[in-house]
Amino acid sequence: MASFACYLVLPLLLASTACHARDAVTPGRPLAANQTLLSAPDGKFVLGFFTPPGANSTYVGVWYGKVSVRTVVWVANRERPIPGGVADNHGATLSVSATGTLAIATANSTVVWSVKPAAALASPAARILDSGNLVLAGAGGGVAWEGFDYPTDTLLPDMKLGVDLVKGRNRTLTAWKSPSDPSPGPVVMAMVTSGDPQVFIWNGDDLVWRSGPWDGVQFTGVPDTVTYSDFTFSFINNAQEVTYSFHVHNESIISRLGLNTTGNNGVLQRSTWVEAAGTWNLYWYAPKDQCDAVSPCGPNGVCDTNNMPVCSCLRGFVPRSPAAWALRDGRDGCVRATPLDCRNGTDGFVTLRHAKVPDTVRSLVDMSLSLEQCRQACLRNCSCTAYASGNVSADRRADGSGCVMWSAGLTDLRVYPDFGQELFVRLAAADLGITSKSKKKHVIVAVVASVCALAFLLAIAGVFFWTRGKKKARKTGSIQ
Ligand SMILES: *[C@@H]1O[C@H](CO)[C@@H](O)[C@H](O)[C@H]1NC(C)=O
Ligand SMILES: *[C@@H]1O[C@H](CO)[C@@H](O)[C@H](O)[C@H]1NC(C)=O
Ligand SMILES: *[C@@H]1O[C@H](CO)[C@@H](O)[C@H](O)[C@H]1NC(C)=O
Ligand SMILES: *[C@@H]1O[C@H](CO)[C@@H](O)[C@H](O)[C@H]1NC(C)=O
Ligand SMILES: *[C@@H]1O[C@H](CO)[C@@H](O)[C@H](O)[C@H]1NC(C)=O
Ligand SMILES: *[C@@H]1O[C@H](CO)[C@@H](O)[C@H](O)[C@H]1NC(C)=O
Ligand SMILES: *[C@@H]1O[C@H](CO)[C@@H](O)[C@H](O)[C@H]1NC(C)=O
Ligand SMILES: *[C@@H]1O[C@H](CO)[C@@H](O)[C@H](O)[C@H]1NC(C)=O
Ligand SMILES: *[C@@H]1O[C@H](CO)[C@@H](O)[C@H](O)[C@H]1NC(C)=O
């Protein structure tokens, strides 16, 4: 009770010494179930024993120090709780041994969870940092183990999702089974590095969401990222790591990315704490709409929520199963109206604008190529069906650099009203409509159409200005 009161008043008093708050567990100074650690220097995170609402088990976890609704962001022993609530477990402890083994034990000294450093540490301490990271280190200062390498269901600012090739860690998020059960549920989010890396969410074996690859600025399937000016999103893809993280510039903004189970599905939510309202505000979430369901329009189909029906075929393609397609079941996708004609070198490309590019798990990536070199490489390879820039410029005015090439079907393709990338889809000459005869015809049609349109616009403008002039005259008249 006392420690709970401490944790409530501490941010107000800003007097950590008054409550004897500490931020570390050291040999001979374990943490008891009725105590907490408070991160230094700002008390942003608390580490302690907790029992989720509706549960009768005890866990060691990390929650916010300055958020009045207890929000657990990390759990140590999620797979092996201590039976009974915190009140039943006064004697449980979190301790560090003289050599640096960090362990959670019950009152009768049964160890339910532990981490042992690769080598014994001198003067070890387990410390909760203001980032929310629980760090085990020795006197030398080198980090022997850290909680950020073992995420639970929440990505905090500066915490990395993805693969650390040096440590051999694959940092994934796994949703709680339910709000009263932190144990790993079926909903998982992870970075898949094959082809062009992407983030996926699964619910058991079912694919729930695909981020699309990083296009240099954002994930192609998270198109509104650039509008969040208080955040920086970063993606690192090199020999040491393939990771995603976000950084919040404004110290007073509390934001987290959490993976959850809703009804029958998985959902990724970015929430931001609104102090005035005392609630978490939902900032962004995915999957969001019908087109975020994985490949609702099948291979070579394009999903567009602004169309009814949402599925259409790429230009130059026709539905594979017209009967199913007519019933708005797009999953079979589309096939080419005309086969490619690679050897003759007459194939060309059509541009699909504002696209979330297709699944890149089996794409070829060459970041050293320019977009024009990419086009030529695609034309040279008879199995290449589309290409796109791998690294668009931040202002999207230039072409960008880097090359992503697809072969076979283009799956899980959607378009946005405004965001997204340009995708260049390979077509046979017959489907490009660029034979000289049809080109001429198009030009004539276009010229006739523009002349008609211009005449029509002029007529409308004439009528508009005429009536406006009259109205204005009338209005002016009435004022005088
Ligand atoms: C909670 O668990 C403890 C220990 O397992 C048990 O003694 C107690 O009866 C349980 N309480 C409830 C409400 O189930
Ligand atoms: C915590 O529990 C121990 C015994 O279980 C008790 O001696 C101590 O006073 C308690 N501390 C607080 C802060 O409640
Ligand atoms: C010690 O506690 C654990 C978990 O609370 C329980 O499973 C085990 O039976 C207990 N052992 C003894 C000897 O009481
Ligand atoms: C990381 O884990 C996920 C989920 O288990 C898996 O699909 C993915 O391929 C893994 N990534 C790497 C690089 O091992
Ligand atoms: C940080 O965010 C707070 C609350 O949203 C706002 O009042 C403040 O002006 C921001 N500070 C900066 C430097 O943007
Ligand atoms: C999951 O949803 C529950 C209920 O809405 C909420 O209490 C919890 O904070 C959510 N978890 C995450 C990681 O956002
Ligand atoms: C290549 O072009 C020639 C002449 O235009 C045509 O007869 C031939 O069928 C084309 N080859 C293929 C594989 O379509
Ligand atoms: C052509 O593309 C296929 C499929 O992506 C790939 O396996 C093959 O290596 C490529 N060939 C060349 C010469 O790039
Ligand atoms: C992407 O392009 C920018 C310049 O627009 C460049 O600074 C950056 O290194 C490129 N990234 C990769 C992975 O090639």
UniProtKB/TrEMBL annotation:
Q: Give a GO cellular-component term.
A: membrane
A Pfam match is S_locus_glycop
One GO BP on record is: response to other organism
Q: What reactions does this protein catalyze?
A: L-threonyl-[protein] + ATP = O-phospho-L-threonyl-[protein] + ADP + H(+); L-seryl-[protein] + ATP = O-phospho-L-seryl-[protein] + ADP + H(+)
Apple domain ranges (all copies): 342-428
GO MF annotation terms: protein serine/threonine kinase activity
Record-linked Gene3D superfamilies: Bulb-type lectin domain
Residue span, EGF-like domain: 287-323
Q: Which residues cross the membrane?
A: 443-466
Chain ranges of the Bulb-type lectin domain: 22-149
InterPro entries attached to this UniProt entry: Bulb-type_lectin_dom, Bulb-type_lectin_dom_sf, EGF, Pan_app, S_locus_glycoprot_dom, SLSG/EP1
Q: Does the keyword Transcription apply?
A: no
The name this protein carries in UniProt is non-specific serine/threonine protein kinase
Q: Which organism is it from?
A: Triticum turgidum subsp. durum
